[in-house]
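pipeline/complex-builder :: batch 7 item 3
reading input block
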Amino acid sequence: MMRNTWTITKIMLRMQYSSAGKQSNTWIYIIVSLILIPFFIMLMQGIHSMVTHAYHMLAEVNQESMLLGLALLFIAAILFFLSFIMILSAFYFSDDITAYIPLPVHPYQLLVGKAANPLIYNYGIAALLFLPFLFMYGSISSAPILFYVYGFILFIIFPIIPFSLVAVILMFIMRYVNIAKNKDRSKIFMGIGSLLFVILVNVLVRLNMDDAAMLDTFTTYMQEQEGLLRMITMIFPPAYFGAGSLHFAADWSGLLFLLALLAVFILCVLLFIWAGQRFYLKGVRGMSSGSKGNLSAKASQKLTQQRSILKTYLLKEFKMIFRTPAFLMQCVIQALFFPVFITVILFLDMGNDLAALVSAAPEKNLFLTLFMISIFLLSTNVTASTAISREGASIKLNLFLPIPFQHLINAKLYVAYLMSMLPFLLLIGVGIYVNIPIHIFIGWIGITLLYNWLAVVINFFIDVYHPKLHWTDEQELFKGRFIPFFISLGQIALFGMITIILWNMNITNVYLIMLILLLSTFIVTDIAHIYLRKKVSLKTLQNLGN
Amino acid sequence: MIEISRINKSFDGHHHIIQDLSLTIPDGKIVGFLGPNGAGKSTTINMMTGILPIDKGTITLNGIDIDKEPLKAKEIFGFVPDRSDIFLRLKGLEYLNFIADIYQVPEDVRQEKIAYYTKQFSIDHALGNYIQSYSHGMRQKIMVTSVLLHDPDIWILDEPLTGLDPKSSYALKQMMREHADKGNTVFFSSHGLEVVEQLCDEVAIINHGELLFYGTIDELQAEYQTDQSLENVFLELTNDA
């Protein structure tokens, strides 16, 4: 039984990671690492000083354990959110499951195989967020060796808890939405629906908060031993057990906390397996993709209107993204989630606070913060880095069509540019709401429009040279592609370092800052653009994947 | 007319897929392109249609070099690829209109042709569905219809009859004959030797990237001094018997 589970898992992972790392990309990793390392060091220094301050402040009132709870809650929240997207993608948006259904294995065995890849990502994120914090907290608090042992056990079991809970919720829901007539449409509906659900939960939690009552509770809890920890982790008890095990690592009670967490973990895993066995296959089977085939004369007439070659190719690209659930989730919805989330939260209860913060912040810092938000949003958008790969092995078949090569390339770049702008448009709305001064606002929009082109060109270039064409399922395209991910990180790190340097320099004139950033972005964009025009030709596309 | 002149193709610089292949396909003929799996048929067709670059040699279509003037050359042929799993998320009619846009077929002409050919192939009822929901045969039919929309001089078809039902297969064969009889060129690859024997004016047989024979079936039988079927000669020629 275990052997089958392992075989299925291995095959599923191999399918998703098979085309990764075929070419020698060492130089890309070296360059990006060179950019990333100093950025990471700068970032860690900042976080370390924040943690140290918070620790000493809380230690004075004997409530430093709250920091552990806060960190675990933060990680749980991130994992909850990411698990929603990853589970939907891996469990329901990928059609490869149909190839496994005829095999003589239990549904839960398929589920374990399907869960492997999202879990690898969860562990990656947990490693990035939790391990540095663990060592920082350990060194500040002069923690015993058991603290690190428990910390490591926590690192192993904790990420599985939010993952299992999200999986169980989604499997239960999908069991019932499967009645929808159109497979793609119901997948898209579910994807958007579950993200809205995450936002809704947040909204409800916030709406139920009464500031005065909160302050009272806060004061009461502060007088109790580990009171603040209990208060903040009430919403997610595993964080309480985890934090407790670390805080009391030197004591027997630490072990008890750990055992309690272990019990929760086992319960979650059992629930996951039970729900998988009961609901999973019912949720993926039997979806039909049929729709009305006959078209009215009017509809036919509308669909056969003549358009220019560029326009028709652009439309085709948009249709492919919006009609393919995996593409829509990764290229649009995921990118929109953060701005939508921020917008909702802001409009609910923080709009005034943020507006006050905006008016109080030095103009230079405000502009640099806005600039970094744009860099983060635009660099991580995957529309350009999958422009070629989205077509899969049939990309070359476009080449027999008499489409001018430049139209082909431009259509892909324009679509990626516009898709990346969608989340930014929302942020512009937020900007107006919180009254960003007009000159900063214009400067921010200007540099964002320019930087977007740079990000699109770089990401597109990477996809041309490292495409993933031989996927059998659209979902595979987004798995195991480390180069675009590293390049995005590299872009964030490079501009992040420039921002940190400008932040710490003695320049106070915001116009000068704008000019420096605009010029440097313009120069890099121009070089990237010239390079693209020079290096990417019809031959490049003809030789793709050879 | 298609003129293939001493073309070569290798994927790693050493392992040759096509070696010094030369072939002239005249106007007014249906030419069948035969060869076992991996013989180099699709690679040759991909070079003819500009999908793959040519390492050495030239290919001209009605006198236009596909390598030097790709856009002009692509406008004069219609191509049905061997895989029909492309543009799956477009509706049948959207795909046909996409192709009509690319070849700039006037609106009234495209509407008339779409109505006519989709009825011929019995897919008129499914034009509002996504290609993804089509059976293999229906996908093949939509691909063939797209070629007919812009009325190209040269038809290049990679396994066009695979998956077609008898009625559609018959209709397509009729269309191929009519197209060639008008003085145009039809070049198609196939594994169905009976169809080739029945339909083609000439056959080209390749194996291991080299041309083994080009001519009529009668010439083939004469050359090998046999009155056996094309199947037997083919098996003998490609050493697969």
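note: Chain B touches chain A through 46 residues (CB under 8 Å).
queue -> next item
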